[in-house]
Structures are given as C-alpha cells and as structure tokens.
Amino acid sequence: MDGNTMLELIDLRAGYDTVRGFVRAVDGVNLRLKSGEFLGIAGESGCGKSTLAYAIMGLLRDQARVESGAILFKGRDLVRASAEEWKQLRWTGMAMVFQSAMNALNPVLSVGEQLVDAIHAHRKVSEAEARAMAVEMLALVDINGDRLKSYPHQLSGGMRQRVMIAMALILKPDLLVMDEPTTALDVVVQRSIIEKIAELREKLGFSVIFITHDLSLLVEISDTLAVMYAGKVCEYGPARGLFDGPLHPYSRGLMNSFPSLTGPITRMGGIEGRTPELLALPPGCRFAPRCPEAVERCREAEPALLPAGADRSCACWLHGETR
Amino acid sequence: MNDAVLELVSVCKHFPTRGIASRGKVVHAMDDVSFTLGRGESLALVGESGSGKTTTASVITRIYEKTSGSLTIDGEELRPFRDREDALRHRKKVQMIFQDPFGSLNPTHTIREILERPFLIHKLASGKDELEGRLVEILEQVGLTPAEDYLRRYPHELSGGQRQRVNIARTFAVEPRIVLADEPTSMLDVSIRMGIMNMMLGLKETRGVSYLYITHDLAGARYMCSRIAVMYAGMIMEIGPTDEVIARAGHPYVELLKEASPSPESGFSRRKMPARGEIPSLIDPPAGCRFHPRCPKATAECSRAVPAMRDLGGGHFARCIRAG
Asked: Which of A107, B146, B190, B324 is the most buried (most CB within 10 A)?
C-alpha cells in the first residue's frame, strides 16, 4: 500500500444476524480511497451502501457486524481496533454525517454546547478556546457565531445539516463519510450544501465518501464512482468516464433513470423488476433477472469485478475490455 | 379557455396559527393562485417544500376548503358540499395519488378489498362478474399481472413500486377527469421511477385524463408535462410551456431552481448560485415580491407591491417586474 492511500477495503463482508440467517448486506467489497479523493457510492435501497458506511465508521452494533475482510485506514486495520482505539479515531481521524442529520442534534442542548462537547471529548482546551473553534467552524459553513446559543428547533433543516457538517469537521478529520446527507433537503439547499463541501474540501484537504441514490448528483461532484447492487460493487471508475460510457447494464439502467433538464426528451426506461432479497439471491449474476442482456452464462456463474480499461473495473460477463 | 377542465382564479388558502406569539395571524399557504388545466393536459406544479404545491392540490380535492377565490371544474363553480352525494360527485371527478405508497394502503385489507371500494362506493359495477372483470382490467392496465395473483395479496407482500401501482389503479377505478399526483415517485427507488412515470403517461393517453403533477424535480416535470407552474412561498412565480420556462426563465427564482438542479451534462464547475437563503416564513411573508429578500436583482420597487403576472407571450407568464 502506498502512502497516498487513505482507506482501503479488502474483501469486506458485513451484515445482520436475523432469525432467518445472516443477511450479508455488504458482500466482498474492495475499494481504495486516495488522500483528498471524493468517492461517490451510488445504489438503491438495500444495496448495502449504508451498511458499508457504518462498517467503515465502526458503528455496526448488536445484530450488525463485520463478518470478514479488512478496513485499512492509513494502513491500520479497523476491524480489529479496540473500543479505546475507535474512540481516538472517530471525529479526529474520520467523521460521519448522517442522512437524518436534521434529527441527529440533541434537541435540549444549544448548538454551541454540542460543538464544545465534541471538542472537549478529544482535545484538552479551555472553554474559551473551544468556543472560538466552534465559531470559526460555523463561519466556514456560513452560520453566524450568534447561532451558538440557538437550539436545533430554531434552525431550518438546511442550517441543521450545515451544523452537522461543521460538527463533523471541527476536529479536522482526514476522512468524511456522508450517508445521503442532502436527501431530505430541497434542491436549492442541497446545492448550497454540496458547494460548501466542495469548498471546504479544497480548503481543508480531507477525503470524502459520499453515499446517495442520486446518481445524477454524484456524477457532478465525485472524482471516482462506485455503483453498488445487492451488496457488491458492480462498476467502479472515474465519475466522468462512468457517466460518458457506463459499462455495466445496471449502471446504464441507472443513468437511464434520470430525465434530462436540458437535453432532448427521449423515452427513458429505467429498470424492470426489483432488487433481489439478500436471503434469496438468484444464482449467477445478481442483476441477471433484471438485465435486458443476460445470457445463460450470467445465470450460472457470478462475474467478478475485473479491470476494464484505464482505472475502471466492471463485474459483468458481457462488458469490460478484458472479456 | 373553453376546454378547461379545471380553473383556479386568485385562489387563497390561509390557515389560522395556534402559537402564543402569533395568535390571530394566518399562514399564507396559498395566495392568488390562478391557472387552468385543459382536457387531457398535464401541468406540473413545481416547488420546494413549503411552496404551497400540496396545499393547492388539497384545495382542489377539497381536503381543505379555499379561503377565497374561484375554483371551477367543467365551468361549474365549486360550492360547499351540501350532502354526501355532492362529495361523491366531486370525488368521482377528482382523484389524488399520494406520495407515500407505504402509508396510503390499508395494511389489513387485501388488494381486492382495497380496489373494490371505489367500485362499490360509486356503484360502478353491477353484479359480481362485472366487478371481477373491472378489477382484473384495472390491474392489467397498471402492469400487475396475473391480476388474480395480486388480488389475493396484502400490501406488505408488494414492493414500493407495486404498491404505488395499486394506488394508481385505485385512482383510475372511478374514471376521474382530473388526477392530482403528489410526488408519486419520490419515495420509490430510482430504477423503478421511470416505469411508473411511463405507465402514468400511457394511462393519460388511453383514459384522456388531465394531470396536475406535483414535484420538486424540474427534470421530472419536463419529462411528464407540457406546461409547468413554479411556486414559491405560496404563490405561482412563473407559468408556461415547459421548455419555454426552462430555457427562458422570466423569474430569478426559476433561474435559481434551474441552477440548483443536478445536471451531469454540465459537470460540476462550481456554479454561480444566483441566490442564497431559504423560503421565508409564511406567517409574515415579505412585502412585495416574496422572493425579493433573496433576489440578487431586487430593487426598492420589489418590496413595494406584489408584482402582477407579466405576459411574455405564447402563454408564458412571470411574476417579476423585470420580466419581458
């Protein structure tokens, strides 16, 4: 592993113990994130993208667990990290912004108290210094320092989400994991949040893993893109290249699910059928039952994620340069 | 317009507030909303949360009664319901598809029981055989085949997309004239949204209904509708043919909405957002143009009076003093 790698997932399997058996929501994922890179993970509900984020952050609890594989953060395997190590790592090394961030703030504490708490948990600084850090961070997300005294209910949804981003970044982590951070927000607010993240990344130089079902948004903001389907990465590559020429039929179907705002209006198809149940996976390629191109081989054996041209890979028997 | 199925003229809906600080005040959820919906036409109502688009739909379905203004269907002014017959007559004409396919089907009823209700309530089938035929027909039209198989099932046995298809089947069961679709695909997985949208476009052709398609997604509105009305803070800011409004927006808010929409074609080139901020309070909406506090082009004049709709030609209107 070279020094430029921030995070590496090696054959990661994670999921949930249920009465019907272990549901492997993440099934053999390999991904690498360079320092400063913006990786977008696209997929629909049930594809394992959130489980992946929770696994990276060490937040799988109770019935949820990492089954096997490794999560190397700056070369250190987090799967084997102790609770004490995690405590050190979270917030200072990596931080997360959740989908329901609007409700993730404590309603009975002011914004300032919550920010200062986070600082005190990790740094030995005075109250005044912590407050100064909080004000500085809020300013970065365009929120006036007066708002330190505000309670969450006094802020709009967009402001609360920006407070959550400020809180995630307050100890200058190297990696920011965002799970659908803008899904609950209106388009205009979403755009301002995304611009803010891009601007802060330039300023502070952290890496981002941005998870969403909105591929049209991801294509715009990511350096690299991983498309997930039923627990596996089915295509990976530079965002632009993936948008211009998606290889996997699922990626193509997803691209074909977002009407264009300015281009010609063409009849779009989306994808027939529904995502498979993880406890009753079809034999062969998981996408085969919905795939318009599937041939016999697709229903017999599962294709591996293999290199398919410059920096790209694809898990399909029919597409990809190495076939 | 002669072939207008639905016409709203200066419709307002104000809700009383209950807070101590705002006692006696009202929420201006919908102010001076005027538009017509032609026979077989689809009009998109686009706006962010709090823009008044769902209130508008609720006033048309008469979940809420309007505060003032005129609302006509087939040229007939809507009056308060006198009896159940009145209400039924209205509901036979106007139906609504709700956003949440999980919450809008009774979980203890089978699909048969759910779909039988409109036929029984509106007495649309005589005899068991006809009812059976109609149920199968409507399920086939929404792409749920074999129909017999679905009639036996309960909502929890269906996926979100299938449930939304049942909702749409129920909506079309009474052969309505107007269908109000309130974000019908926003809670569904992206890959199945187009299937639902295409099916709705097909039903419009075969059934000749008019759609009022409510969405926050400008691109989706463009796919579904020939005309578009953009709402902001309870008022229509711009209305006209879809491509006209998108290509030559007359209102700075529509410009902002356009800039903010994801558009992979144009790439991420740190867009110059024409405005910041969020939707104002509807209890004390800004004087004059409701967008002026956020508008980069606002002048003193903008805060004086609510701008009138300006005619930009070809059925394109914008509520901005600089438009045209």
From this structure: B190
Q: Residue A99 and residue B40: Cα distance in Å, rounded? A: 39
Contact A270 B191 (CB under 8 A): yes
In chain A, what are the domains?
5-93+177-269 (3.40.50.300), 102-170 (no CATH)
Name residue, tokens 């967009």. Answer: A158
The tally of CA atoms less than 13 A away on the side-chain side of residue B110 is 11
Handedness of CA B191, B195, B201, B203 (dihedral sign): negative
Structural domain contains residue B91? yes
Q: Which amino acid is at B7?
A: E
Chain Cα centroid distance, residue A309:
24
Residues 113-172 of B with CB under 8 A from A: 159, 161
Query: How far, in Å, are A10, A18, A24, A52, B148 from residue A63 at the CA level?
Result: 22, 7, 12, 15, 38
Place of tokens 């102010």: B31
The answer, for B255 touching chain A at a CB cutoff of 8 Å, is no
Instruction: Report which residue type is found at B235.
Output: M
Which residue segment(s) compose the domain that B80 sits in?
A: 4-263+270-278+290-318
| Phi, psi at A253, each rounded to 5° | -65, -40
B72 inside domain: yes
Contact criterion met (CB below 8 Å) for B26 and B16: yes
pTM: 0.90
The complex's ipTM works out to 0.84
Chain-chain contact of B271 with A191 (C-beta, under 8 angstroms): yes
Mutation for B interface: A47, A186, A248, most B CBs within 10 A? A186
For residue B324, being part of any structural domain is answered with no
8 Å CB contact between B144 and B60: no
| C-alpha of A200 from chain center | 17
Dihedral in degrees, nearest 10, Cα atoms B102, B105, B106, B107: -40
Q: Could you give the CA distance from residue B261 to residue A312 in angstroms, rounded to a whole number? A: 28
CATH code for position B193: 3.40.50.300
Quote the CA–CA distance of B230 and A188 in Å, as a whole number.
Answer: 14
Put simply, the answer to whether B273 touches A195 (Cβ < 8 Å) is: yes
CA atoms within 13 A on the CB side of B167: 29
C-alpha span between B225 and B211 (Å, rounded): 8
Could you give the CA distance from residue B301 to residue A267 in angstroms, rounded to a whole number? 44
B83: burial class by Cβ within 10 Å (0-12, 13-18, 19+)?
A: exposed
Per-residue pLDDT of chain A (323 residues; tens, 9 = 90+): 455 899 999 999 999 999 999 999 999 999 999 999 999 999 998 899 999 999 999 999 889 999 999 999 999 999 999 999 998 899 899 999 988 766 788 999 999 999 999 999 999 999 999 999 999 999 888 888 889 999 998 888 888 888 999 999 999 999 999 998 888 788 888 888 888 888 899 999 999 999 999 888 898 889 999 999 999 999 999 999 999 999 999 999 998 898 988 888 888 888 988 889 999 999 999 999 999 999 999 999 999 999 998 889 999 999 876 44
Phi-psi region of A229 (alpha: psi -120 to 50; beta: other; left: phi over 0): beta
CA of A285, closest CA in chain B: separation in Å?
Answer: 18
A198: contact with B, CB 8 A cutoff: yes
- A153 is written with which tokens? 């209910």
- For the record, the structure tokens of B141 come out as 């039209």
